[in-house]
Amino acid sequence: MENRTDVTEFILLGLSTKNEDQLVLFILFLLIYLIALVGNTLILFIICTDSRLHTPMYFFLGNLSVVDIGYTTSTVPKMLVNYLSQDKTISLEGCLSQMYFFISFGGIECLLLGVMAYDRYAAICHPLYYMVLMNPKVCTHLAVASWALGLANSAVHTGLMSALSFCRYNVIQHFFCDAPPLFKLSCSDTWANQIVTFVVGGSVVVGSFLMTLVSYVYIVLAILRIRTKEGRLKAFSTCASHLAVVNIYFGTIFFTYIRPNSIYSQEQDRALPVLYGILIPMLNPIIYSLRNKDVKRTFQKTSWVSHLLPPRQMFTTGGTKS
After folding, report:
1. The pTM is what?
2. Domain CATH code at residue 100
3. Contact at 8 Å (CB) between 185 and 193?
4. Which ranges of the sequence are coiled-coil (predicted)?
5. What pLDDT, on a 0 to 100 scale, did the predictor assign at position 238?
6. CA 211 and chain centroid, separation
7. In a domain, 1, yes or no
């Protein structure tokens, strides 16, 4: 039976349908988007222009900044346009493209968080072998694998979604095109899509989460062996903010995607992606870098004219702890 669609465009209702909320939401998300863009671009600039930050940890932070810029850009600009326009439609092709990039950057972020946790495990638990475990070749392979798996994961979901038929309703009670609300609108059997979402997407999320969890278990055990109370408190304080963001990020993703479609509630859950898809990318530069003394020192000493050309060396010996 040929899969054809009668629906050629969808209507994105956004986070609120009240006219009095449109301008407030526009200003709020415009500020968040600008902060995310400026913060992540600034991190990239600092990492590229200071050879002292050419270590594995900052290499992954640079990748994370690129992902966060793409993550927010995949949804926020369209949402901002919709808040100022009476026409809130998006074509079927545009909807699938938005879903592809959002899931891609979300998967890559999950994988990079796991890789970064492993990097911290290597630096804290095996400092003498750190540059062996995290040499430039290994770091490059880990980054490339994260990007490749994230893109491939999204391609599977988007490919299956494009095979569904949409022949009845076209109103999406969400601020962007995501898999769960599209399942609700499809007049095809979405059982296979839901299984793939659970198995393939769940493997990416759960695998990244387990890598992060196991790494931090070893990190905590290493911190507990620190003799001084001040040293332990400082180490735990450094990890607390990162662990909080990891919990929010993975927790909302688990709740949104790793569950049956039958208990999905559009009204209840359309705000959840704001946490991991918009707010977390805005907070990442602050949590991972801007609170770091090395980055703050580099930013204060950086000349915007004399440091425009990046150094030759991509990595230096030794790791930097945050």
Report:
1. 0.84
2. 1.20.1070.10
3. no
4. none
5. 60
6. 16
7. no
Q: C-alpha angle with apex 63: 306 to 53, nearest 5 degrees?
A: 45
| Average pLDDT of every residue of the chain | 81
| Long-range contacts (CB closer than 8 Å, 24 or more residues apart) made by 135-144 | 135/315, 136/314, 136/315, 139/56, 139/59, 139/60, 139/315, 142/60, 142/115, 142/118, 143/59, 143/60, 143/63, 143/112, 143/115
**For residue 202, what are its two tokens?**
């769940």
Residue 189, domain member (yes or no): yes
Q: How far apart, in whole angstroms, are the C-alpha atoms of residue 247 and residue 233?
A: 20
- Number of domains composing the chain: 1
Measured torsion, CA atoms of residues 206, 212, 214, 220, in degrees rounded to the nearest 10: -150
Residue 307 per-residue DSSP state = T
* Cα(294)–Cα(320) distance, integer angstroms: 9
| Domain assignment present for 258 | yes
**pLDDT band for position 311 (50/70/90)?**
very low
CA dihedral 160→165→170→171, nearest 10 degrees, is -40
User: Which of 2-11, 188-197, 227-236, 307-316 has the weakest average pLDDT?
Assistant: 307-316
What whole-number distance in Å separates Cα of residue 321 and Cα of residue 57? 8
The encoded tokens of residue 190 equal 């979405």
Assigned domain for 320 exists? no
Q: Which helix (H) or strand (E) holds 47?
A: helix 19-49
Domain that holds residue 184: 10-301
* 47 pLDDT more than 90: no
Instruction: For strands 171-172 and 9-12, give the pairing.
Output: parallel
**Could you read off the pLDDT of 60-107 as tens digits, one per residue?**
989 999 999 999 999 999 999 999 888 889 999 999 999 999 999 999
